[in-house]
Design goal:
The protein has 2 domains: 3-34 and 90-178, PH-domain like, CATH 2.30.29; 38-87. 38% of the residues lie in helices and 36% in strands. The protein has 4 helices and 9 strands. The strands form 2 sheets. The protein has a 6-stranded antiparallel beta sheet with strand order 1-2-3-4-5-6, with helices on one face. Strand 5 (102-108) and strand 6 form a beta hairpin. It is elongated, with a radius of gyration of 21 Å.
């Protein structure tokens, strides 16, 4: 069955787990809502505030104990922010362009900078449904990058077991698109 036939017989679901899907002419867009990515940034802002307050306390001759506690809080929040951002790494958006037979992965690096990578459909090696948490599943994409290194990235990370049919529909459509 060709991709066009698969798409005609079964349109992609509107949502798969945390990812919203939208089909627009010859592209399929999958995007995570930005609210899921606010925790790392909020922790970073709080860490900055605690660090500045600790420095101000030290400069003004305030309590050394309070300044030390705020410095430790700042360090803990910074660590949480880095770990949380690392767990949320991966595409915040993916775009399948059927005309160019390419997949664009948009995301952020550990410093919060926007990064994009274009993956030709021919470089996609596999797309599998994998368990990601108790009673949750994800879509794991395997592809080779420009340096021919095997890379893995989640297109969907948290789809509850109750939504398994939508996940399967998206999996079938994407596998047909990649020619797997």
């Amino acid at each position: 069955m060709s991709f066009e036939d698969a798409l005609q017989s079964q349109l992609p679901p509107e949502r798969v787990g945390e990812v919203r899907l939208r089909f627009d002419e010859n592209i399929l867009i999958g995007a995570r809502p930005p609210a899921r990515r606010l925790w790392p940034e909020a922790a970073g802002v709080l860490a900055l505030g605690a660090g500045i307050t600790a420095v101000v306390l030290l400069i003004q001759g305030g309590s050394l104990l309070a300044a030390g506690a705020l410095a430790l809080l700042s360090a803990a929040l910074t660590g949480f922010s880095i770990v949380a951002r690392g767990r949320l790494l991966g595409p915040t958006r993916f775009i399948l362009n059927f005309a160019t037979e390419s997949l664009r992965l948009d995301g952020t690096d550990r410093l919060g900078r926007t990064v994009s990578e274009v993956v030709p459909f021919d470089s996609v090696r596999d797309l599998t449904v994998v368990p990601t948490a108790p009673r949750h599943f994800g879509l794991l994409l395997e592809y080779t990058d420009a340096a021919q290194a095997l890379r893995r990235v989640y297109l969907v990370q948290q789809s509850p077991a109750a939504e398994v049919e939508a996940l399967r529909r998206a999996w079938r459509i994407l596998r047909h698109a990649f020619g797997l």
